[in-house]
Design goal:
Helices cover 5% and strands 40% of the residues. It is mostly beta strands and 182 residues long. Strand 2 and strand 3 (14-17) form a beta hairpin.
């Protein structure tokens, strides 16, 4: 199941698009899971923890005026704008401690085990990363996904990490595909 938001306008040989496609990985990790559906009923995120008592971060995602401007060669331009927003659904929802974005390449929709998520988070080179200092919404600019100068369609992964009571991290993974105008 996928959810596509698309609004495109062609002007002077370039496509101005407010687009985003989110693909839930559909498979269940072999570790403990905590699935959170998107605000509009979209597929759940993939989440995993090494210890059953260490729940994963709990966020709902949405787009905030996401508009990608691409040229005639479908290359994302600097004049693009907008954000992807992660919101804590309830006052008792579990926030993350930090996040990282990655160029997903062909990694979307495989079955992720806890060790695969942990390895990806710890060893892969992120497009961007930051610590989360408080239990509030995360507003991530399109620029933090390493999209500038990339050709659509392109895939990106966002992983939010939370340090559990056991001292081991728990993860929530979001895979996004940014398709080209059609």
């Amino acid at each position: 199941m996928s959810l596509l938001h698309r609004s495109c306008l062609c002007a002077r040989g370039a496509w101005l698009c407010g687009i985003g496609l989110w693909l839930g990985c559909g498979s269940t990790p072999t570790s403990t899971t905590n699935e959170t559906a998107g605000r509009d009923g979209s597929p759940p995120t993939v989440s995993a923890s090494a210890v059953a008592g260490d729940a994963s971060p709990s966020y709902l995602w949405s787009f905030d005026n996401l508009r990608l401007l691409v040229d005639a060669n479908l290359v994302i331009q600097d004049s693009s704008s907008g954000n992807i927003v992660l919101q804590l659904p309830h006052s008792n929802s579990l926030p993350g401690d930090e996040w990282k974005t990655f160029d997903a390449g062909g990694s979307c929709c495989q079955q992720y085990t806890y060790s695969e998520l942990d390895s990806l988070y710890q060893t892969a080179t992120p497009a961007a990363s930051d610590r989360i200092s408080e239990a509030s919404d995360l507003v991530l600019s399109w620029r933090l996904f390493g999209l500038l100068g990339k050709t659509v369609p392109t895939k990106r992964t966002l992983i939010v990490k939370r340090r559990g009571g056991s001292g081991r991290p728990a993860y929530a993974l979001f895979d996004f595909v940014f398709p080209g105008p059609q």
